[in-house]
Amino acid sequence: MVTTLIFAGGVGVRMNNNAKPKQFLQINGKSILLHTIEKFERHVQIDNIIVVCIEGWIDFLKLELKKYNIKKVKWIVPGGSTGQESILNGLKELEKQLEINNDNIVLIHDGVRPIIDNYTITENINSVRTYGNAITVAHEIETIASVNEDGKIDRLIDRNTVKIAKAPQSFYLKDIIEAHKKSIEDNKVDFIDSATLMSYYGNKLHTVIGPSDNIKVTTAKDFFMLKAMLELRENLHELERLESYDDRERVYYR
Predict the structure, then answer these.
(1) Are residues 192 and 246 part of one domain?
(2) E-assigned strand segments in 97-244
(3) SS3 state of residue 39
(4) Strand locations in 37-183 (E)
(5) Structural domain tally of the chain?
(6) 131/229 same-domain check
(7) What pLDDT does residue 231 have?
(8) What is the pLDDT of residue 246?
(9) 177-212: per-residue pLDDT in tens?
């Protein structure tokens, strides 16, 4: 069984938007979070989705899921004070709901990262089954500099040896739950993501190359970039549909 854990429990303080959390900002009539959920809803290998959500916005999310006929979201749980705590809340619920065996896979994904494609999701699942885990990464296209405390460059790093960690980050459910339990025992509650946590506890991580435009919405600039990309994609899909219709008409009247 394959489950996606989408965590959207943060308030997004860097957005400078007090009215609405960033995951519920609207693009083309849908929240960013719903755009993300839909990508996993439509993937044939995803069996279940669990969403970790800001507690005060759970009812809003339920209404949106109903409006857009989302069927795979089986559980919604409140978020925590950090991303790590939110993910743990979701994993605890999965531990109650699913068998912890060698077959159950979980894809952990940001609720504000909707530019994800079927190929990357499939490759994550395949990588877990082959190697035990999958960390989605993208190629680095800029020059990377290692800088010392004085602000001077120590060295320039070959960008061909560097990748940017993104999401999904995917594991066997039993392995990621075990690592989270260790982190609580060790009072290690400041891991930036699941890859960092799993690496800390000695797991060898395997990469999957994902889309470079798979951005995480953190700032207002990110929001407007995402809005432009989603609108462009929708316009391209509409253009393809119209061109396909025109082709059929030409054949019909030939």
Answers:
(1) no
(2) 105-110, 133-139, 144-147, 153-157, 163-172, 207-209
(3) helix
(4) 48-53, 73-78, 105-110, 133-139, 144-147, 153-157, 163-172
(5) 2
(6) no
(7) 83
(8) 52
(9) 999 999 999 999 999 999 999 999 999 999 999 998
Are 11 and 60 members of one domain?
yes
With a CB cutoff of 8 Å and minimum separation 6, the contacts of 72 are 40, 41, 46, 47, 48, 49
What's the DSSP call for residue 65? H
Q: Are 43 and 144 in a shared domain?
A: yes
> Structure pTM?
0.88
The residue segments making up the domain with residue 177 are 2-216
Which residues make Cβ contacts (< 8 Å) with residue 20, sequence separation at least 6? none
pLDDT digits (tens, 9 = 90+) for 18-39: 678 999 999 989 999 999 999 9
Alpha-carbon span 69 to 59, nearest angstrom: 15
Cβ contacts of 129-133, under 8 Å, gap ≥ 24: 129/105, 130/206, 131/206, 132/171, 132/172, 132/175, 132/203, 132/206, 133/169, 133/170, 133/171, 133/172, 133/175, 133/198, 133/203, 133/205, 133/206
Mark whether 108 and 169 lie in a shared domain. yes
Instruction: Burial-class residue 39 by CB neighbours within 10 Å (0-12, 13-18, 19+).
Output: buried
Minimal CA–CA distance to 90: which of 7, 166, 23?
7
- Token readout for 87 is 């993910």
For residue 21, the domain's CATH number is 3.90.550.10
Tell me 12's DSSP state.
-
If phi > 0 it is left, if psi is from -120 to 50 it is alpha, else beta; for residue 10 that is beta
